[in-house]
């Protein structure tokens, strides 16, 4: 049949108004039906995931009840009160059994998740691992320690959802390297914890498993993206957790929940076996790291991880064992410090935390030197935002297709999915009124070409060299600076992604950085907050003020930073801060 004859046969369809109308109505109905079917399919997948979670928690509860029935004299309260280092000692000497510790934490985790919704899976293989552990002659550094794992870190026989429907049903065939190493050191991974959808957000909510609350104040966010970890550990349901950090995702929940958390140098710990919605992004470095109630727990975890088994399983990890000499040193430090980064004005409690910690460090014999991060606007906009979204957010937007956007992510996502041209036009319009927001919109357009991506990578290297040169010129050992906080009210994190400036700087630089709680928000801080204006007086400054309101009594942290590959020095500094600020943390 010729094209002309085919057109003649089809011509009545376009020339008859009634036929055309019927076709159009039918097409519209078909589109609506297909959309409805797609939405229904998504809902069914989410319902199935929730059903599987509930079954897992029921199984966990039955195991705890069985243990309690068989061991009515278990020292649960005593076990839960012990610091991790002391708990390890008692496990190794045999005064406490691994069973009593595991089931005590399983029971407490069930209580905590019932209150704040932080556990999304029970790693039932932990019971089999427990039996194998008892038969082993050698006891690893983390012998018998129950450990919680962030959702997207693979565990054999379980799903790593990433808070997204697209990853549901993908049961992992093997453990991630970090989980394998933890097990080899005697740790017992026992639960997986909740995260925000896509993890490019520092709240903790997704439409599959819901919103996680801050156990210290349910009106507040636990932070994210390792928010489930933060909530569970702060609630007492875990003694050690593994999170990840690409903009502050270990440090922010640690700050919001009053915990200690360490973001190591990239590749100091293996990242093999981790699900991510932005695989291939190299401009900003993400990494895995520990979260716990005290610095000693972080140090012990790092000692355990930096072992021959890690280096064997992942040859790309530099074989650098933990340097105990550096961590244990008492040599006075030369410490750079700053109270604000110049991009976001710190909240009153953030600034006070640095001021008081600086004073205590000086009194303890350390030297404190003023420091200002160079070109912070350029770093946040051009190196972090444009780097993280160098593809113009295309990969992330594609990743969310076939999903329903969580309300806490909508503000971000609605901006991300705008066409590049629209972003550029909006940036031009907003520049005279809100220059910071305009720069952010421009950066979200990405780099545009492979050539520009190379230039962007080069710019990161140049900035890193400049930053280290300034560090060396001042003869610094470490830096003391604010950690974003206190905990945000619900719904604000997705509207203030750029407020991660205090933490994302050290992802761009790839420096190890940790967070230590040092104080609590006072009524004087809350009163001073009423006069907060910010540096720009734009909607972001107004939102930050609203985000941190109503936080009296909640923890406030500081951030401790060292040069690349100096995790031991970073931890040593964190330990010093923790020790000196003990009196300031009475209510943490």
From TrEMBL:
PANTHER family: FATTY ACID AMIDE HYDROLASE, FATTY ACID AMIDE HYDROLASE-RELATED. The keyword Endoplasmic reticulum does not apply. Belongs to the amidase family. This is Vitamin D3 hydroxylase-associated protein isoform X1. The active site is at 150 (charge relay system), 225 (charge relay system), 249 (acyl-ester intermediate). The gene is LOC106485225. Keywords: Hydrolase. InterPro entries: Amidase_CS (IPR020556), Amidase_dom (IPR023631), AS_sf (IPR036928), Endocannabinoid_amidase (IPR052096). SUPFAM superfamilies: Amidase signature (AS) enzymes. Signal peptide: none annotated. It comes from Apteryx mantelli. Residues 102-571 form the Amidase domain. Substrate binds at residues 199, 225, 246-249. The keyword Thylakoid does not apply.
């Amino acid at each position: 049949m010729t094209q002309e004859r085919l057109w003649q046969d089809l011509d009545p369809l376009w020339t008859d108004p009634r036929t055309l109308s019927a076709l159009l109505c039918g097409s519209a109905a078909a589109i609506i039906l297909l959309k409805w079917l797609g939405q229904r399919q998504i809902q069914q997948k989410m319902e199935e995931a929730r059903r599987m979670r509930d079954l897992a928690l029921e199984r966990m509860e039955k195991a705890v009840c069985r243990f309690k029935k068989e061991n009515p004299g278990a020292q649960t309260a005593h076990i839960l009160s012990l610091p991790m280092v002391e708990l390890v000692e008692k496990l190794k000497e045999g005064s406490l059994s691994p069973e009593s510790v595991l089931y005590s934490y399983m029971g407490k985790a069930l209580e905590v998740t019932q209150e704040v919704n932080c556990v999304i899976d029970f790693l039932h293989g932990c019971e089999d691992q427990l039996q194998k552990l008892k038969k082993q002659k050698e006891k690893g550094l983390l012998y018998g320690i129950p450990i919680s794992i962030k959702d997207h870190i693979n565990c054999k026989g379980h799903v790593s959802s990433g808070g997204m429907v697209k990853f549901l049903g993908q049961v992992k065939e093997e453990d991630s390297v970090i989980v394998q190493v933890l097990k080899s050191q005697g740790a017992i991974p026992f639960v997986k914890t909740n995260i925000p959808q896509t993890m490019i957000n520092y709240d903790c909510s997704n439409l599959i498993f819901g919103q996680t609350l801050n156990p210290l104040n349910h009106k507040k966010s636990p932070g994210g993206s390792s928010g489930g970890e933060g909530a569970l550990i702060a609630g007492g349901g875990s003694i050690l957790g593994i999170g990840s950090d690409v903009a502050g995702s270990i440090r922010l929940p640690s700050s919001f929940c009053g915990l200690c958390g360490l973001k190591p140098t990239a590749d100091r710990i293996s990242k093999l076996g981790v699900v991510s919605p932005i695989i291939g992004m190299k401009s900003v470095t993400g990494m895995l790291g520990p979260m716990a109630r005290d610095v000693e727990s972080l140090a012990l975890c790092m000692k355990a991880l930096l072992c021959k088994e890690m280096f064997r399983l992942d040859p790309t990890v530099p074989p650098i064992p933990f340097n105990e000499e550096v961590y244990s040193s008492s040599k006075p430090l030369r410490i750079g410090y700053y109270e604000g980064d110049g991009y976001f004005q710190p909240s009153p409690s953030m600034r006070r935390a640095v001021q008081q910690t600086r004073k205590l460090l000086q009194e303890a014999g350390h030297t404190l030197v003023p420091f200002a991060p160079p070109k912070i606007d350029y770093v946040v906009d051009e190196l972090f935002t444009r780097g993280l979204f160098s593809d113009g957010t295309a990969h992330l937007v594609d990743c969310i297709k076939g999903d329903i956007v969580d309300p806490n992510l909508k503000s971000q996502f609605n901006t991300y999915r705008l066409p590049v041209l629209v972003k550029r036009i909006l940036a031009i319009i907003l520049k005279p009124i809100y220059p910071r927001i305009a720069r952010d919109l421009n950066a979200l357009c990405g780099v545009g070409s492979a050539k520009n991506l190379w230039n962007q990578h080069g710019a990161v290297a140049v900035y890193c060299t400049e930053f280290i040169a300034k560090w060396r010129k001042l003869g610094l050992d470490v830096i003391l600076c604010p950690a974003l906080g206190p905990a945000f009210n619900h719904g604000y994190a997705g509207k203030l992604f750029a407020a991660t400036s205090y933490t994302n700087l050290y992802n761009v630089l790839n420096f190890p950085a940790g967070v230590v709680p040092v104080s609590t928000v006072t009524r004087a801080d809350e009163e001073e907050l009423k006069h907060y204006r910010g540096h720009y007086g734009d909607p972001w400054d107004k939102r930050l003020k609203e985000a941190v309101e109503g936080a009296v009594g909640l923890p406030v942290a500081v951030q401790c930073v060292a040069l690349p590959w100096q995790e031991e020095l970073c931890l040593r500094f964190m330990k010093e801060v923790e020790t000196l600020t003990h009196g300031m943390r009475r209510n943490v």
